[in-house]
Amino acid sequence: MREQLQQDFLTHYGKEHQHTYFSPGRVNLIGEHIDYNGGLVMPCAVTMGTYLLVAPNNDGVFRFKSVNFKETAEVAVGSSNVKKEQFWFNYPIGVIEHFNKDGKELQGLDMLYFGNIPIASGLSSSASIEVVTAYALNDLFNGGYTKLELVKLAKWVENVFIGLQSGIMDQFSVAFGEKDKALMLNCDTLDYQAVDSNLGDYLLAIINTNKPRKLAESKYNERVQECNAALAALKQELDINYLCDINTETFNKHKHLITDKVVLDRATHVVEENDRVKLAAKALNDNVLAEFGRLMYASHHSLSTLYEVSGKELDTVVNFCKPNADVIGARMTGAGFGGCAIALVKKDAFDKFSAEVTEYYTKEVGYAPSVYSSLIGDGVGLLPELAHA
Ligand code: ADP
Ligand code: MG
Question: A Gene Ontology MF term for this entry (predicted)?
Fold first, then answer.
């Protein structure tokens, strides 16, 4: 694949590239819908992501080309940029705009992107392209940003330049990810701990339901409101800022204050899920994958029944996984109502798993999922160039 990309660069720009950068996508292993409740998430970088090949030019322009999209673009160095319609190159242009805003000196650059991660499927190809661009420019032109500043810069691109509201988890995990580590992260304080996550004989299967994620945004806002209602009720007796400031034991002593059954269910998910993340970190750290898998199923069950953000498609995947001896745990990941599920699957059974889950899902849902295998990979970086044959 790297050889092919080098060839693509040569064909498109008529010269050799000089450097190759890579930024992964991410999945959240556990800790869903609790980041906005002061809780802990536990994402990891995956081994699929976005490659960026670059070569400087003397023409005073940035040129953008992506193997994944047909549109190309060119903007002058130092020019002020605004978002243009819905084109993909808004992502790198937004990054450049932030460098401009901060008065950083940039020079002309020819760029070629390639994502081998499913795009617009919830694995954060957007954070991946933002972070790979920011990292490359910072590295090539001595931008002087720290990695955390690059994360915040990329989030600015997503939230302000592109205009999509989202937390910092995505940019953080693709930048700070480490091979065979999960990141237990508080999205408010950005305190995090890299948790040893040796998957041993297992890999991370990613099952994209291929369901358009229509409901996610309105339901997301509804859940935020329900959590606020639960918090307000608990505050009558407890001095807390977030639902995740208390554990399940304390919650159980005070939950009588929440009179609405639905609000109580939502809060129960939040508090228990936060406890599950801590147990999951311990299970991974102790290398007890079976316990981690059990927590994945418990997380999914809670998201499906208490938080009600799953749906037939995601439930179908997890229902297929549960009785399967080659699968140790599975759950929906991301906001829900579609998007992806993840499963820990025996490495040597992956092909069989992929064929069987596809068949089962297609029969139940009416169209096929996409199934990928991944490991827990490194965060953004400069790749060593291939040795010339
Ligand atoms: P997700 O982050 O879940 O993959 P988004 O809709 O947030 O989905 O981001 C996808 C968008 O990011 C694409 O439509 C495109 O504009 C941009 N993008 C991601 N990867 C690439 C790539 N390899 N080449 C060009 N644009 C990309
Ligand atoms: Mg995105």
Answer: galactokinase activity
Q: Which atom of ligand 1 is nearest to the CA of 66?
A: 24
Which atom of ligand 1 lies nearest, measured to the CA of 119? 4
Domain assignment of residue 388, yes or no: no
Cβ–ligand 1 contact at 268 (below 6 Å): no
Q: Is 63 helix (H, G, I), strand (E, B) or coil?
A: strand
What would the two tokens of residue 316 be?
A: 């179908």
The answer to whether the Cα torsion of 165, 208, 178, 180 is positive or negative is positive
Q: Please check whether residue 270 is in contact with residue 37, taking contact to mean a CB–CB distance below 8 angstroms.
A: yes
Instruction: Yes or no: say if 130 and 50 are a contact pair by the CB < 8 Å rule.
Output: no
Q: What is the pLDDT of residues 242-291, one digit of tens each?
A: 999 999 999 999 999 999 999 999 999 999 999 999 999 999 999 999 99
Domain harbouring 215, CATH code:
3.30.70.890
Closest protein CA for atom 18 of ligand 1: 126
> Is it the case that residue 354 has pLDDT exceeding 80?
yes
Count structural domains, the chain. Answer: 2
Q: Are residues 193 and 217 in the same domain?
A: no
Ion ligand 2 neighbours (CB, 5 A) are 124, 126
Query: Residue 102 catalytic?
Result: no
pLDDT in tens, 182-193: 999 998 899 999
Same domain, 21 and 137: yes
**Range(s) of the domain holding residue 210:** 202-374
Residue 20 lies in a domain: yes
Q: How far does residue 254's CA lie from ligand 2's centre (Å)? A: 37
Please check whether residues 165 and 302 belong to one and the same domain: no
Residue 389, domain member (yes or no): no
For residue 246, the 8-state DSSP code is: S
Please check whether residues 191 and 227 belong to one and the same domain. Answer: no
Q: Is the CB of 133 under 6 A from ligand 1?
A: no
What are the backbone dihedrals phi and psi of residue 129, each rounded to the nearest 5 degrees, phi first? -70, -35
110: β partners:
55, 63
Same-domain pairing of 338 and 223: yes
183 C-alpha to ligand 2 centroid (Å): 19
